Amino acid sequence: MTRFRTQQSSFTAGEIAPSLHGRTDLAAYANGAAELTNVLVAPTGGVSRRPGLRHCDRLDGPVRLVPFEFNTEQTYLLAIGDGRTAIYRGDNRTLTLPTPWTAADLPELAWTQSADTLLVCHPDRPPQRIGRFGATDWRCAPWAFPVEEEGRSKEPFHRFVDDGVTLTPDGTAGTVTLTASAPVFTPAHRQTRLRLTAGARTVQAVVTAVPAPRSVRAELSADLPDTEPIRQWEEAAWSPAHGWPATAAFHQSRLVIGGSRDLPNRLWLSAPAGLFDFDLAQGADDAAIDLALLSDQVNAIRAVVSARDLLVLTSGAEWEVTGEPLTPSSVTVREQTRIGSRTDRKVPPVIADGAVLFASRDGRALRELRFTDLEQAYQATDLTLLAGHLARDPVDQAYWPTQRLLLQLRPDGTAAALAAYRVEQVTAWTRLVTDGQFRAVATVGTDLYVAVERKTGDWRLERFDPGLGVDAGHSGRTADPVTRWSGLDVLDGDRARVLADGIDIGRHRVRDGAIAVPVPARTVSAGLAFAHAVEPLPPALPTGEGPATLALRPVETVFAIEATPALTVDTGRGPRPLPLRRLAGVDAPLDAGPAPVTGMVRHRHLGWTRNPSRPLWRLTGDAPLPFTLLAAATELKVND
Asked: Is the predicted pLDDT of residue 391 greater than 90, yes or no?
């Protein structure tokens, strides 16, 4: 009979996909786990119970959450929903603003911010700017392009029809009829702006009516020189006829527009410091830039990101746009990698530690796009190689910089949390669940907010709060102990998990928005319980024996814990709370909260097993109390 010890010194590899549970040869196997639910991995390797969720507000339905940071002192959260946008300062709603997007539009929304203006794009909707004019004065309006002398707009234009198609005016001034040599117009062209170049003169015209596919009525901004057929003419690049901007960003003082419905691979850069000035101006250094991403595959632009360079993420590849500074003559476009981004919805890429993290087109990976000095090019590393079962088909994501945590939401309402610490070589995924479904996420300042669809069907805005151990949580404090606590209307009818003066007093029914605790308390927190779970990988057995033929006898497991007041262990015979108070030698009053324990806790096992794939232990619990596991070691006997 052979004795050996399995050592789990850290959890820096995170939860490992079931398909890799037999790969004991992997370096990550020693620091991985079979299950990490509702815990987060620290850079030092331990795992801790995730923060609870504090209730902020009821939502009217599906939303996209958008951060808005006016300055370091004034940060806001915008919840864009069906026909309206709720604006929050901290956890409080300040006002609700009418906005033009429907619930069906939400998956394709993209946005960027400059100072007090948020620009919002959708390929099928006119782009809007949401401006902050005061703490409670917010306005939403369509983009307005600068207009120079003779009524010429500085919006971008494009030739959508064959070069041989001409327009013949029936007059030279005012409102004229323009007759095309081919049927190129539709009713959607009404109010579209045209740019006509007749000889040396350029005139713009606004379509006022479309009587036939070959003709339009248009109001000229200036007089034409004659009524000869016009061969050089263009349409507004963005219009109801050809769609609207798909995504936007700011880079080197230029507004960058990536793609539109009918020009999906085109890139527009405004003039420097000219928010909506897209006038090419004969290629001057301070002029706008208009270019296309051309290669042997489809490159519909899905996102533009201002990082070390301007990065363009498309449906088929990732591109680098460079120029120091960016000018029409210096701009250079190079394809870097061929991964592609999601095409069914916009999942906003995030910047973390100088790298751009984006969801791959197939929805099976999170890629880290980073410039490498050795290659002098960008590489797209797969961060989900070991945990592909967690990061699948993301619908939204956000990075929480203060916690160095990426939260990625899935269609089933669960969340995958990535703790990424490059210097410490930590890339650890865990799974987060709640009593309902996570639907949207955003980081505002140092806070991480989520939109949650609870099992009751109502949508709520909640914030991760390290001071809470429950979800949809509320907390209160009084100077004198009381037994009745109100203000819990959002939990009405639920059996809330309650912590009173630091003591877990179990579940209590919320009636008429209030609970009654059995003993008067000065502090109470109440909300929906959630359970955490930590389960190790199957033990890596000694070499030379087939694992299926071995009989194992776990003897003892030693858990290294930190500031943990309660620990429940399951070694195959059901969950069993360990007497941490006795093990820690704490002499505390029986009516006091459980004392947090830091140190080594030993647990003896019973019996043999012939199933080496079965976990040797499992730690779980739903008590709203802190929990941190640093390491674990199990002594085994093998019947050889």
From this structure: no
The answer to whether 67 and 442 have CB atoms below 8 angstroms apart is yes
Report yes or no: 448 and 458 within 8 Å, Cβ to Cβ. Answer: no
Q: What is the three-class DSSP state of 281?
A: helix
Whether residue 126 is predicted with pLDDT greater than 60 in this model: the reply is yes
Burial 459-470 (b: 16+ CB within 10 A, else e): bbbbbbbeebbb
Alpha carbon distance 107, 398 (integer Å): 15
Q: Which helix (H) or strand (E) element contains residue 577? A: strand 575-577
Give, in degrees to the nearest 5, the angle at Cα 200 between 196 and 203. Answer: 30
Written as six digits, the tokens of 157 are: 């234009």
| Residue 36 structure tokens | 């990490």
pLDDT digits (tens, 9 = 90+) for 470-521: 999 999 999 999 999 999 999 999 999 999 998 999 999 999 999 999 999 9
| Whether the Cβ atoms of residue 474 and residue 503 lie closer than 8 Å to each other | no
Distance CA 208, CA 144 (A): 19
User: CA 308, CA 541: separation in Å to the nearest integer?
Assistant: 47
What is the rounded CA–CA span in Å between residue 592 and residue 322?
63
Q: What does the DSSP assignment read for 414-476?
A: -EEEEEEETTTTEEEEEEE--SEEEEEEEEETTEEEEEEEETTS-EEEEEEETT-SSEEEEEE
Peptide bond preceding 325: is omega within 30 degrees of 0, i.e. cis?
Answer: yes
Residue 283: DSSP 8-state: G
In angstroms, the CA 593 to CA 521 distance is 12
CA proximity to 100, closest of 139, 59, 145: 139
From residue 104, how far is each of 97, 123, 442, 489, 504 by CA, in Å? 18, 13, 20, 30, 43
Give the tokens for residue 119: 């620009």
Terminal-to-terminal C-alpha distance of the chain: 6
pLDDT above 50 (res 544)? no
Both tokens of 93, joined, read: 């709603």
Task: Name the pairing type of β-strands 459-465 and 266-269.
Answer: unpaired
pTM of the model: 0.93
What separation in angstroms does the CA of 91 have from each of 74, 265, 443, 444? Answer: 13, 39, 13, 11
